[in-house]
TrEMBL record, chains A, B:
Domain named HTH tetR-type: residues: 10-70
SUPFAM superfamilies, sorted: Homeodomain-like
Lineage per the UniProt record: Bacteria, Pseudomonadati, Pseudomonadota, Alphaproteobacteria, Rhodobacterales
MF term (GO), any: DNA binding
Pfam family, one: TetR_N
DNA-binding region ranges: 33-52
Name assigned to this protein: TetR/AcrR family transcriptional regulator
Organism domain of life: Bacteria
Amino acid sequence: MTTAIQPRTLKTRARLIEAATAIVEDSSFTELRVEEVVRRAGVAKGTFFAHFKDKDALLDRMIGEIIDQHLDQIGAGAAPTSVDQIMVALTPLMTFIGSEREVFGVILRYSGATTVEEIGPIAATFERFVLVLSDWFIDGPFRQDADPATLAEGVQAFMFQALALNFCAINNQRSVHDRLRPYLELWLHPAKALDPQG
Amino acid sequence: MTTAIQPRTLKTRARLIEAATAIVEDSSFTELRVEEVVRRAGVAKGTFFAHFKDKDALLDRMIGEIIDQHLDQIGAGAAPTSVDQIMVALTPLMTFIGSEREVFGVILRYSGATTVEEIGPIAATFERFVLVLSDWFIDGPFRQDADPATLAEGVQAFMFQALALNFCAINNQRSVHDRLRPYLELWLHPAKALDPQG
DNA sequence: ATTCATTATTGACCGCGGTCAATTTTGTGT
DNA sequence: ACACAAAATTGACCGCGGTCAATAATGAAT
């Protein structure tokens, strides 16, 4: 039998990712073209698709890696003790997700996986997001009547709601921050909301 | 000056929409092709793009109309007095949105408008969604410490969260319903959640 | 009826993602 | 060294959304 995976393969894949990264640095995710990637990498078009199922799979990997780096930062800091601190902690990630329509689009498409075996990088980061945030809600100064993971999922939902509305010209006068804060206040401090003194 | 809009125009547009509707009935939104639409309508490809900015604009219109019909139903019924009743009321709309990945995708893309003048049908329905649901939260048996519109936006966010997770193979064992209920319970009945007897 | 500016339609063409049969490269057994 | 099968690469090709200069149809003014 022959070697299952050749060194050549890894080298080519690295070249493709390198080329793609350079393109994003030069312009943006939106303007990334497969034909430009293979041109810079010096390989044929077909080679690209031998390495990535489709263009989105490459973006999935690149964007997933960036999100993971943000989660490293989020997880490394001390657990927030207020909604404001939560928003400060989440800001860099939200800024990235909201930086380009294309990025937001890919994340929305890839937040779900088609089959269990094919859980992509982005989908994985969203599981991780819930794990990281759940820690904040165990014994934190936030509501204790709910499953921490459910609270984390709620924060995720509100984050996307705020970002989606921000991409919408009708109501993008308010910043993502101003939009997210009341959601989180009501979600995480229902008692305080019921009674401002409490 | 000449007539601003010719009868011919309306007729052609109607033929295009008719053809597209027939295709969706025959197959699905996913399999709708512009070339098939113009073939059935008996016009050239360029004509399509003289009537619709792009393919998404047609889908925006078709899907927006369907969502509007669901909102008619939702608005016509009596205001729900429990989370379960809310879910019953929202079920037909959620079933439609979750019926096809393509439908969900178009809605996510078009829930926001690029410019204020270009608020599309789907974006309009989401403003209407908030209006309709806000009515339920004024003087209803739900939390009274929050702006009704904010509560409605929260329901919207959770609806999308539940739908998005449902498209995800990792965790689609739970139904959309089972996923949505705890969110809404915690969102709309924080006091009850704090004290099960209350 | 004829002119003429405006509007609608046409279809060849392009961009770009994605496919696949043919070809080349690679590592292993002899 | 050589043969050979598996793996990697190639590039012509396709599908389909979208463009645009050229052409045709329309209706108002005369």
